[in-house]
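Thread: quick sanity check before group meeting

JM: Hey all, I'm pulling together slides for Thursday and realized we never actually wrote out the predicted structure for the chain we discussed last week. Dropping the sequence here so it's in one place. If anyone has concerns about the input, flag it before I start.
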Amino acid sequence: MPGQLYLLIIFLFLGLFLVAEFGCNPVKNTEKVTVRAVNPNANEDVNRVLGYLITLPEKSDNRIISGQNCCHGNEIIRCFDAYVQKLHDQTGYWPGMIGVDYEYTHRFTIDQLHECNQYLIDYWNKGGLITINWAPHNPWTDNGTRDYG
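JM (edit): ok, ran it. Output follows.
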C-alpha cells in the first residue's frame, strides 16, 4: 500500500505541472498539413493531429501533452468533474487530452456511451484531444476483461 500511495502522489504531482491549456487541438490550426497518414481514407483532422504530434519533439517548450483518464463509459460524468474540472478550477489549466474506456468495468448501453461521447465531443470542440479505449469482456465467459477462458 505505501508504494501505491507513493506512486499516486507522484502522478498527482506530475499531473499538476504537466497540463496544457485548450488550444493544443491541431484541427483548429489552419496551417497546411505536410504529414499524411498511411491510410488514404484518413481525413484532414487525422492528418493535422498526426502532424501536430510529430512536431512535439522539435519544439523548445510545450512538448508534452498531459492527459486524464475519465473512467469508463458514462462514468465520465462523475470523473470529469472530479478530475478535469477540479484541476481547471484549482489551476486555470485543462489537460491537453482526456480519455475513457468503453467497457472494462462492465458493458455499457448505447445510451450510456452516447452520454460519454457528448463529453468527449465537447472537449474536442473546445480544443482538447481525446482518446477512446475498448477493453472488452471475454464474450465466452463474461467474467470481465482479464478472464482468459
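AS: nice. The helical segments are 2-17, 44-55, 76-91, 110-125. DSSP finds four helices and three strands in the chain.
JM: adding both to the slides.
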